[in-house]
Amino acid sequence: NEINRFPSGKQNLFLELLQKRKVSYAGETLDLGDTCYFATMNPDFSATYPLDEALLDRISISVPATQPDFLASLALAEREKEVYELAESLPRLSSKEFDSLPGMVAAVSLDSRVELSIISLLRDFTLCERAPAFDKTQLSGGSKPSRGLCAGCHYFNNPEVCCWQVDEGLSDRVRQDLRSYTRALSLLLGLGGSGELIEVLRAVAPYVIWHRLSPNRTMLERPPYYRAGRLQYIKDLVEKSINRTLNERGEMNMIFARAVDGEISPREAIEELSGYDDPIARLDYARALERMV
After folding, report:
1. Which among 43, 139, 196, 264 could disulfide-bond with 268, CB atoms 3.0 to 4.6 Å apart, if both were Cys?
2. pTM of the model
3. First to last CA, the chain
């Protein structure tokens, strides 16, 4: 309950528990095995103790819990049964059914469009021309977009580019979480078509990444966000990234794929990609092709 009330010592202990799946106490080490934790936290992370970025990155998904609306409040007031009584009447999975769920989720196939959209989404938030290895996760101290890192960069203030609009990059853990939740929700909803899976990705991605990122304060203070619409701001950036990958980046992706498949030379591909003012084309594709020359 309210994980942001954990002082730094408890946060480190919980982080170690998540990393090692073991906890030591009174000279005894307990193996926790496969576990799933649910936590609540105050919307204002700095209200008590700021949450460590490493801990935030291990929170797979974050969903806002709003107060009941008018009709829900009436229903709660008139409810005759307690929650535990209602829970007893719900259908339950047998142990065998429960144990089969991870395998069923893993069996959901994600097509190339979804996989490419996931990778491009991570790169859109992580690539930075001024960061070590062009990787924002390598930034430290005061080197952040919000502290002037992007001043003078030709991508700065371009609303279609995500890199300058958030301080942090996204780790590979986010890629794994996006794949897992896209598969799980698709299984739950009985969806499997290419177009359907893309829409599931659009739906889950903001909730997987919004708590890990600090948006540009100036942009967040403008309408329609008014400094309170952090989740919506990230949703809009996710939408731009996925749409760009599926539409404008189509030819760019095709050029790179043809070079990888040997249909054109890496030098030819680099020449063609030079016409695209896109961070992924310049900092990812072109550099990868240079290593193939």
Report:
1. 264
2. 0.89
3. 55
